[in-house]
Give the backbone structure.
Amino acid sequence: MSMSSHAIRVLSPAKLNLCLEIKGLRPDGYHELDMLNVGIELCDAVEVSVGGEDIRIECDDPAVPRDRGNLCRQAAEAFFRAFPETRTGLNIKIEKRIPVAGGLGGGSSNAAAVLFALKALTGTEVGGAELIRLGATVGADVPFFLFRSPAWARGIGEELEDGPALPDYTFLVAPQTFGVSTKWAFSQYDLTKHPDNLKCSRNRGMAPAGWKLFNALEPIVAAAHPEVAKTKDVLLDLGAIGALMTGSGPTVFAVFDGRESAEKARDAAARELGRAVLLCRAVQGPLLREVFHNQE
């Protein structure tokens, strides 16, 4: 098998959940979700190159696993199982800017970038829908990053359809100094106390300006980590038109309808919270972007 190129570098964005509703428990043990996801211009960089006899992971963040627990490695293995004739040694380098265990989907985005890169590296004829199905075997958030933004995501996140066009919002993203386990957050959710709220379903029939930001996991995480609620209050007091924890947290984001007001709020929030607050725009359209392609 000959490779069509030697190395590809892909920008791998974070995502925000503008809505995250838990609708029930599936027979497979996963939760049935209804979400409105948007990608943002906070990106890792993932470089995939051919070489060696195994799959080797490098990362500039020590919190990222290098072993078989790494989703990038799992993505590569899934690709090679699906297309065994393409199997080769790989070097995967990850430059992290997305906080780990922050609810921003960084690991899933990185895994999607590997699938995206391997399709191009190997010249494999695989359609978008097939690649999304393959991504779902790696992780529930991986399909979204192989799709487009914004998107409605259902099931465990693998059932995707285009979301409505977003206004020209600016987002402030406030990572915390700690992480939250996704498995823990979902395990704490009591479905008997929260019958189908249908928050996301109601959003679907509304104009973007009328959306109700909603995250079913936020009260659980905020009860265990008061810093989540404090961060929301700070951002709302600084003029945000809405604020919410994303994913299983603990990162909080805020929505502003102008860049100038967002920049002022970012500086004030950073001072009050004592940590970095990031200013981001939404990604509308394809999520993954190739920025380097080295031909053999």
Remarks:
- The mean pLDDT is 90.
- The CA atoms of residues 270 and 276 lie 5 Å apart.
- The radius of gyration is 19 Å.
